[in-house]
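Quick review question:
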């Protein structure tokens, strides 16, 4: 096994942590009769020689010795060694690694018939990945499928057939027929589900017309078989506790994740499949479904009411893992969680211990059930939030969630002000403590908050940097309070020569309505500022309306140049000042196409325009017809802010309604 290992200059080779002189010891330990030593060696290989999928010169030097280990029947855990080889040779690891493993590809052929199921599982995928002759590979898979009896290996064979179909479409006919046969009796429900998933990925035309009902039925049959099998209860002690922390049905989760991925934009089918999963009598199936739902909700637009309601129904389950998964998903849905609001409220009412989460270090945070209830906009969250605000240590970030409750949260304003008033001005955490409270008071537009905001602006010492960090949020709060913030005008005027000049000028305009006092400042920031500063100045100028007409030449220049955010802000201000949509709409159209992240601001402006935005109705109509959320990308990439996407859709509808 180790012939020639000492002839390699391992000290001259490298891995993730420097010299590879320790690698021979790791290789020898992989063959140790001691299980603990073997496990430590495998961890070492993944931790240094193949760290995070990377390949080094020492990795390539290991390949012949790993193949030699895999070929010796007396070596334990050879399946893990074959898995390591497959990972080293993956396409993502680079051409040199792939070439090195492919040079030994014939060694995978006998391993695919090895007496050890773990070895067969790992080697089966390698046949498709590294052998060059498609006809031979298909024959090997066909022969193995005919005699294989181990369910896990059969599942791996199914995945290998699916990979073969996608990698060799010209030779895929025989593999498709094998998959179609595996999707029918007498194969087990798990194997049939796996085959359906692979057919959906590669040849969806071969799927049954009743795919979703079939998949749900197979899922339940599989669950019944699992429930009637041997007791899988973990033993007592540390090992048992660690096992109970792992997903309880990883294979089931993988099978359904494959099917959901294959269905992709068939959102109606995916919702129906999800509803079927969530209606299962088996808690593991429901837990897998809840976790699967998160990606569906984040990427796609649809009527998810039935699925969300069923997720809410999991909140009274005795299984902590299922309940926690459901709460986690609902907390990211904001208004879309409304169908589960009754269940959330019931959980909050029954479990005060879940109102806040304590940490070993730092302040407590708001518990997810209460956070989800507040984010859904349900006013029943208000009394509980009031109790937390009245306590000695309110959860960090509570104020940020108050924002989603709208006017219903008005009774919380006095408690929010009191907490703001108790923040120590000399604390380095002053800005962190104040930000959520001021965000809530800004949303509530509470005029009585002015003295407390001014206390922070005037009193925080510069030396700690707290005042600088506080200024931005404090100015936004004063801006929202309008004329009630007139007492703050001296402080705001003092900020007109700082980097906060543009927002301070906007707050001064809200308080006094004196265009002569703020127009020169905003014009200066528009022409001299860069990036965010110019954008903010343009936004504030738009609020002045016709009173800012003298800034139009500079706004026209900015609307025709600069980055998309500055162009968009300048065009919006141009419209609000001049009222002529004709020169503005082309700027907004190009920005809409250039950067999906700008669409929210553009749609808000179009909603203000009413009939004047008619030339851009095609953009709004297309957005409303799009199934994928505007910042999501195929494969789940991109930002997945559900609340922002839902606001965009609302503004699109409003703009179209004003036609």
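Suggested answer, residue by residue:
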């Amino acid at each position: 096994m180790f012939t020639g290992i000492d002839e390699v200059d391992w000290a001259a080779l490298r891995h993730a942590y420097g010299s590879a002189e320790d690698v021979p010891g790791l290789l020898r330990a992989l063959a140790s009769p001691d299980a603990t030593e073997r496990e430590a060696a495998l961890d070492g290989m993944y931790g240094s020689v193949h760290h995070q999928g990377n390949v080094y010169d020492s990795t390539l030097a290991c390949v012949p010795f790993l193949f030699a280990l895999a070929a010796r029947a007396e070596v334990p855990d050879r399946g893990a060694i074959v898995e390591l080889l497959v990972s080293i040779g993956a396409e993502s690891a680079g051409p040199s690694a792939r070439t090195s493993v492919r040079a030994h590809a014939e060694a995978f052929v006998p391993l695919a018939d090895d007496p050890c199921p773990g070895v067969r599982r790992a080697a089966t995928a390698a046949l498709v990945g590294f052998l060059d002759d498609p006809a031979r590979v298909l024959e090997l898979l066909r022969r193995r499928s005919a005699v294989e009896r181990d369910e896990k290996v059969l599942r791996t064979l199914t995945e290998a057939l699916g990979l073969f179909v996608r990698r060799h479409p010209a030779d895929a006919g025989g593999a498709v027929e094998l998959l179609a046969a595996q999707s029918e009796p007498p194969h087990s429900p798990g194997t049939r589900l796996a085959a359906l998933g692979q057919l959906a990925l590669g040849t969806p035309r071969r799927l049954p017309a009743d795919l979703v009902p079939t998949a749900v039925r197979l899922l339940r049959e599989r669950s019944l078989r699992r429930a009637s099998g041997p007791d899988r209860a973990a033993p007592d002690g540390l090992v048992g506790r660690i096992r109970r922390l792992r997903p309880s049905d990883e294979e089931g989760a993988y099978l359904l994740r494959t099917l959901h991925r294959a269905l992709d934009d068939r959102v109606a089918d995916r919702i129906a499949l999800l509803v079927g999963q969530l209606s299962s009598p088996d808690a593991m199936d429901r837990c897998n479904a809840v976790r699967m739902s998160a990606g569906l909700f984040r990427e796609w637009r649809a009527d998810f009411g039935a699925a969300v309601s069923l997720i809410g129904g999991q909140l009274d389950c005795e299984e902590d893992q299922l309940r926690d998964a459901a709460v986690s998903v609902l907390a990211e849905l904001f208004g879309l969680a409304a169908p589960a609001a009754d269940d959330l409220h019931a959980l909050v009412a029954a479990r005060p211990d879940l109102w806040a989460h304590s940490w070993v270090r730092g302040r407590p945070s708001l518990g997810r059930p209460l956070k989800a209830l507040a984010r859904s906009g349900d006013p029943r969250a208000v009394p509980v939030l009031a109790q937390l605000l009245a306590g000695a240590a309110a959860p960090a970030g509570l104020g940020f969630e108050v924002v989603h409750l709208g006017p219903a949260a008005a009774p919380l304003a006095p408690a929010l002000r009191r907490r703001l008033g108790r923040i120590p001005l000399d604390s380095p955490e002053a800005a962190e403590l104040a930000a959520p409270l001021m965000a809530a008071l800004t949303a509530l537009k509470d005029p009585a908050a002015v003295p407390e905001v001014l206390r922070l602006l005037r009193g925080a010492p510069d030396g700690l940097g707290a005042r600088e960090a506080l200024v931005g949020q404090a100015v936004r709060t004063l801006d929202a309070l309008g004329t009630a913030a007139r007492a703050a005008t001296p402080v705001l005027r003092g900020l007109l020569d700082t980097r906060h000049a543009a927002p301070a000028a906007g707050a001064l305009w809200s308080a006094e309505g004196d265009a002569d006092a703020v127009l020169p400042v905003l014009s200066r920031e528009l022409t001299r500022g860069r990036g965010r500063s110019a954008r903010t100045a343009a936004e504030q100028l738009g609020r002045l309306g016709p009173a800012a007409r003298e800034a139009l030449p500079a706004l026209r220049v900015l609307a025709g140049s600069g980055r998309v955010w500055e162009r968009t802000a300048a065009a919006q201000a141009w419209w609000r000042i001049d009222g002529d949509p004709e020169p503005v709409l082309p700027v907004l159209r190009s920005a809409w196409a250039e950067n999906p992240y700008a669409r929210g601001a553009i749609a808000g402006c179009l909603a203000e325009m009413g009939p004047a935005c008619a030339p851009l109705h095609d953009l709004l109509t297309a957005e409303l017809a799009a199934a994928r959320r505007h910042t999501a990308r195929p494969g789940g990439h991109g930002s997945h802010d559900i609340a922002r996407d839902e606001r965009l859709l609302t503004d699109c509808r409003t703009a179209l309604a004003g036609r």
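Why it works: The chain has 36 helices and six strands. Residues 265 and 595 are 22 Å apart (CA to CA).
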